[in-house]
Structures are given as structure tokens and as C-alpha cells.
Amino acid sequence: MVHFKESQLDLVFAALADSTRRSVLRQLEIGSRSVSELAQPHGMSLTGFMKHLRVLEDAGLISRTKEGRIVRCALSPRPMQEAAVWLGGLTKSRPGGLNAGSAIIPA
Amino acid sequence: MVHFKESQLDLVFAALADSTRRSVLRQLEIGSRSVSELAQPHGMSLTGFMKHLRVLEDAGLISRTKEGRIVRCALSPRPMQEAAVWLGGLTKSRPGGLNAGSAIIPA
Fold first, then answer.
1. CA distance A81 to B92
2. Which of A54, B7, B51, B88 has the most crowded CB, counting CB atoms within 10 A?
3. How do residues B54-85 score in pLDDT, each as one tens digit?
């Protein structure tokens, strides 16, 4: 299995553990967006929304660039790819694949 | 894109955001383990270790079964699979795939 930097994976998975932040990543799937475009559907204060963007940026999941007075965000796919590969490696390496162990019913 | 239960994804990604918990999942890749076998390499108090197991269990990532006096843990792969599919969907749906946007250098 590829070895990833554990601290980076901590930040990426923590950033993904929030539905607002996951929604922002989905908004950025088809291309970059301004901060105000991104904030609009979320119905929260801009201060609160900027905190979410900062968590995504600290995890390396998005980048911010300034174009005049407009701040635009874009996906930075590599950390997400590393998280996906980590998860994929874990699920694929099990004997019998993803469905192995499905007979065990969680308590 | 498949729609997953957001609260479940919150728990799964939060559980994955810790290197000890990711290490436990890797220990369980090849089959179930007793709690003491799992705890041994981590060099922490059993109380602290049990908290990590509880987070994994609450996220549905592991199940615990009691065999006499031994508590054994096993992977429950479905939530991990859902997280992997969510990430895969996000990274694959971008024009140009995973490497699109890589020219944007994070600040």
C-alpha cells in the first residue's frame, strides 16, 4: 500500500466530515467559483462560511486566488485523490473484497 | 451521483481523521482481532484505546462481538465503501479527471 503523510490524511478526512464542506466541494466539481457564489446556497453568515473554506484550504482540498476584488476558489484534487486511494486500498485488500464480513451485524 | 446519508458520512470521515483509528482499520484488513491484539501496538491506555474503538463503531466501520471473555472486532466494510464511492464520484466527475486543476498552485 502507498504510504501517505498521516497528518495530511488527518486534515483531509476531518475537512470531509462536514456536509457544508462536502457540498462546497461538489459545487466546485465543474469549475472554479467565487466565494459569494459558493456561499449563496448555504444560508449562513459569511464569517461562518469562510471558516469552512479555511478548513478546506488548510487540508489542501481547495485553492483561493484573487482576481481584482473577487476571490475565486478551485478544487485541488490531489489530496482528495490520496484519501480515495487510501480508502480504496483498505477496502480492496480484504479477502473476498468489499462485501467480506457483511454477515457480521453491528451491535 | 448516489446520495448517501450525510450524517453517516460525517461520522465515517470524522472516524477516519485520526491515524490511530486508520491504523486499527488496517490491522483488521486481514480478519477480525481481539481488542487486546488491536491495542498492543499502540502504546496507549486501554481506556484511551477503547474510545477510538467506540468512534469507529459509532461510524459503523467496525463491529464488536463477544466470544466468552474475549471481545473481537471486525471491519464492517459498507460505510467505508460508501465514503470511497463518494470520494470517487467527486474526483471522477471533473472535466479532465483527477489532474484537472493541478495547474492551480495552492497558496
1. 10
2. B88
3. 999 999 999 999 989 999 999 998 998 889 88
**Phi and psi at residue B20, to the nearest 5°:** -65, -45
Phi, psi of B72 (to 5 degrees): -110, 145
Stated length of chain B: 107
Q: Give the mean pLDDT of B25-48.
A: 95
d(CA B95, CA A62): 16
pLDDT at A12: 97
Of A17, A74, A84, the CB nearest to B17: A17
A58 inside 8 A of chain B by CB:
no
CB contact under 8 Å between A87 and B87, yes or no, is: yes
User: What band does A28 get if pLDDT is binned at 50, 70 and 90?
Assistant: very high
How many CB pairs (< 8 A) connect A and B? 137
Q: Which of B63, B77, B98 sits opposite A105 (nearest CB)?
A: B63
Count of CB atoms situated within 10 Å of the CB of B63: 18
Cα B36 to Cα B73: distance, rounded to the nearest angstrom: 10
Q: How much is the pLDDT for A102?
A: 37
User: What is the rounded CA–CA span in Å between residue B91 and residue A84?
Assistant: 9
Nearest to B107 by CA among A52, A74, A12: A74
The pLDDT value recorded for residue B34 is 97
Which residues neighbour B16 within 8 Å (Cβ) at sequence distance 6 or greater? A9, A13, A87, B22, B25, B61, B83
